Amino acid sequence: MANRRLCCLLFGVQVLAAVAGARWPQDFLRLPSEGTRWAVLLAGSNGYYNYRHQADVCHSYQIMKKGGLKDDNIIVFMYDDIASSPDNPRPGVIINHPAGADVYAGVPKDYTGADVNVNNFLAVLLGNRSALTGGGSGKVVASGPSDHVFVYYSDHGGPGVLGMPSDEYLYAKDLVQALKTKHAAGGYRSLAFYLEACESGSIFEGLLPDDIGVYATTAANAEESSWGTYCPGDADGQAPPPEFDTCLGDLYSVAWMEDSDAPRDRRAESLEQQYEVVKDRTSANGTYSAGSSSHAMQYGDLRLGAAESLYQFMGTDPANDDDDKQPLLHPTPTSSKSVNQRDADLVHFWQRYRRSAEGTPQKAEARARLLQVLSRRARVDSSVELIGALLFGAEEGARVLGAVRPAGQPLADDWDCLKSVVRAYERHCGPLAQYGMKHVRSLANICNAGVGEEAMAKVTSQACAADRIVASS
Ligand SMILES: *[C@@H]1O[C@H](CO)[C@@H](O)[C@H](O)[C@H]1NC(C)=O
Ligand SMILES: *[C@@H]1O[C@H](CO)[C@@H](O)[C@H](O)[C@H]1NC(C)=O
Questions:
Q1: pTM of the predicted structure, to 2 decimals
Q2: Average pLDDT value over all residues in the chain
Q3: Residue 286 — very low, low, confident or very high, per pLDDT cuts 50/70/90?
Q4: Same domain for 210 and 153
Q5: Which among 303, 320, 337 is the end of a domain?
Q6: Cβ contact 371:352 at 8 Å
Q7: Number of domains comprising the chain
Q8: CA–CA separation, 95 vs 241, rounded Å?
């Protein structure tokens, strides 16, 4: 009798709360079920010298799978040119650690090749099947308001942009807008976004609101590189087997994944605790030693990061269910040398060159490739410098293009202007590509200084007409 009265009293309170406050239905949804876990995993590069991004993504799939997520709820984007690459010393196999097992087996090929693109990524995230193009699996995040969504993206990036294999860019503004749209449509209870890329902080800095249930962490702040790891030349135990010639992973990425793999119950670790572990490792134990470390960052709803466990997003391996009393172990950060994301291709071509026998066509080809990459870089750098000089004069141009906005401010005021300036640049000067993406901040600064599309087009064509003459002579 007493129980029934309590029950009715509670019911009355709930009805009152429902009438009085809009927050109640959300709280109620927490009670009946945990919701479904979804994961979107994307590697934005291709080419054997970018081995590590697809290796990271395959590894992340194995984590989700072991945690109990179903393949219906895990959506993988990868170019899928690594396992079968003629350069791969272990055909059909991908590893993400020097002594690691295969992480490729079983990975669903939802979106591969040219289907790895901005349109499909946003369509999948938004759960919009009719917006998909190409021949992918058609899986999308068809999630509801009690679900948890995990997004992991590993690639090259630049200020305000993330790469795709096709040399198109995902702009920060469009990504954050998609998250807002998903939130407004009741598409999740919480969403965690893990991002590995150079200048990855710039994707969320000053853009990601703290009240849309999104918690994001990034490999780097808004103005620094992120790092490849397990690279040729690393210390013993950290270097890949000698036949690999390429980095096997990325520092931030292997930090969160090796932490998630640790044999303990993922209910016992919050997202924020994992962030702290990752931050230690990417900062070389907080020393931020030059030339191998970055500032891992967190953005968005930080309360969510503190309150939600890894389990909410990654599930947990039943084999570790009894380990929830185990204290959180911080894995020993390694003294890996690491390689700047943007230089990992150089490391690969240099290794190729160094290791091929004197006088062979392989050696000549590796040398030609290395020189080609270096001269292309020099041309991109000098064309951007010249554009600055033509617009503002040499000294002022260097100042305007090199400016970095204070933390908390977005990279650009007008993202449509930025897109048009990038298009103008690429029309006259060729693709920015993986290396050139670092100049997007300079192009954003041109917009922020109020230079119009027309002036930009004129100056770009001037700057790169000269460049074409040099290139063809
Ligand atoms: C899904 O995408 C299609 C094609 O781009 C678009 O016309 C439609 O409005 C989108 N649907 C929703 C619900 O956003
Ligand atoms: C970080 O600290 C651990 C010991 O706590 C040490 O073994 C490791 O070498 C250090 N790493 C760096 C990069 O300093």
A1: 0.88
A2: 88
A3: confident
A4: yes
A5: 320
A6: no
A7: 2
A8: 11
Residues 291 and 405 in one domain: no
Ligand approaching nearest to the C-alpha of 127? 1
pLDDT 10s digits, 452-468: 888 999 999 999 986 55
Question: Residues 272-293: what's their mean pLDDT?
Answer: 90
* Residue of the CA atom closest to atom 5 of ligand 1: 131
Position 317 scores a pLDDT of 87
Nearest protein CA to atom 7 of ligand 2, as residue: 332
Q: 297-300 and 214-218 as β-strands: parallel, antiparallel, unpaired?
A: antiparallel
Kindly state the greatest CA–CA separation across the chain. 95
- Residue 231's pLDDT is 94
Q: What are φ and ψ of residue 395, in 5° steps?
A: -70, -50
**Ligand 2 site, residue 330, Cβ cutoff 6 A:** no
Ligand 2, closest atom to CA 335?
A: 13
Is the C-beta atom of 268 inside 6 A of ligand 2? no
**301 and 393, same structural domain?**
no
CATH number assigned to the domain comprising residue 118: 3.40.50.1460
Average pLDDT over residues 267-271: 95
Pocket test for ligand 2, best of 236, 293, 332, 338 (most atoms within 8 A of CB): 332
List, as one string, the DSSP characters of 271-330.
Answer: HHHHHHHHHHHHTTTTT--TTS----EEEE-HHHHHH-BHHHHH---GGGGGGGGSPPPP
Using alpha carbons only, how large is the chain's radius of gyration in Å? 24
Distance 150 CA to ligand 2 centre (A): 30
Q: What is the b/e burial string over 242-281, where b = at least 16 CB atoms within 10 angstroms of the residue's CB?
A: eebbbbbbbbbbbbbbbbbbbebbbbbbbbbbbbebbbbb
Which residue do the tokens 């992973």 mark? Answer: 249
Closest atom of ligand 1 to CA, residue 126: 14
Residue 473 pLDDT > 50: no
Report the C-alpha gap between 22 and 16 in whole angstroms: 11
DSSP output for 381-401: HHHHHHHHHHHH-HHHHHHHH
Q: What is the pLDDT of residues 385-401, one digit of tens each?
A: 999 999 999 999 999 99
Contact between 398 and 386 (Cβ < 8 Å): no
Does 177 map to a domain? yes
According to DSSP, residue 211 is labeled: S
Tokens 């992120």, residue? 226
Residues with CB under 6 A from ligand 1: 128, 130-131
Residue 285: CB within 6 Å of ligand 2? yes
Nearest CA to ligand 1 atom 14: 128
Helix ranges, 338-432 (H):
344-355, 361-392, 394-402, 415-429
Distance between CA 296 and CA 94 in Å, rounded?
Answer: 26
- Same domain assignment for residues 422 and 306: no
